[in-house]
Amino acid sequence: MAVPVFCNSCLCEPRTPTPRFCLTSCGHVFCEVCLQKGKKDECLVCRRACRTLVLSKETSPDIQSLFMPIDVLSKKYSKEISQVSEFQEKYRKRLLKYHKQKIAKLEESLKKVTQQIQQLQCMKPPENTTPLPFSSTSRNPSVPSRKQNVYSSYSLHSSRPSTSEMMEAMEIDPVPSPMRKV
């Protein structure tokens, strides 16, 4: 059974010959007779400015649903909700599948790069046997380097000195070069 429609002013219900009923934008229903008695564009109940809409079979489904029985309305919206839910579930699964494929590709790339790094490390000669060119030699063999002992022991422990250590290892030639202008 549908929700009974009645005028919120005179409380009459639709009958034959039935006056037309209107719904106001403030949510009240009036028969055509009562609407003509009131002020134009003003609700007879709450006295607010309002618009009116004639209720008929051509009225939009959203407005008609206000007067449908709850069980009919529940079935209608239940079906719509099920369709939306199925759509969203399929959409979510497609997105999940895409991300799983992307992760698998990234893991495969990571595996390949890791293998390449391991292969390069196997081909690399041991670093602790290679002396650094500046750590044990001097430009002037007769003048021993003050830092020579420190850096020769350093080269046994580390493969590459830091920039500051390289600066300390540089020797300054006290004799001017013939190419330099003094």
UniProtKB/TrEMBL annotation:
- Compositional bias annotation for Low complexity: 152-164
Q: Which UniProt keywords apply?
A: Coiled coil, Ligase, Meiosis, Metal-binding, Zinc, Zinc-finger
What PROSITE patterns does the record point to?
ZF_RING_1 (PS00518), ZF_RING_2 (PS50089)
Chain residue ranges for the region called Disordered: 124-182
Q: Which residues span the membrane?
A: none
Q: Which GO terms describe its biological process?
A: homologous chromosome pairing at meiosis; protein sumoylation; reciprocal meiotic recombination
Q: Which GO terms describe its cellular component?
A: synaptonemal complex
| Protein origin, superkingdom | Eukaryota
Output the CDD domains linked to this UniProt entry: RING-HC_RNF212 (cd16746)
**From the Swiss-Prot or TrEMBL record, what is one GO molecular function term?**
zinc ion binding
Q: Which residues form a coiled coil?
A: 96-123
Give the Polar residues compositional bias ranges.
124-151
**Which Pfam families does its entry note?**
zf-RING_5 (PF14634)
- Per UniProt, residues of the RING-type domain are 7-47
PANTHER family per UniProt: E3 SUMO-PROTEIN LIGASE RNF212-RELATED, RING FINGER PROTEIN NARYA-RELATED
**Identification of the protein by name:** RN212 ligase
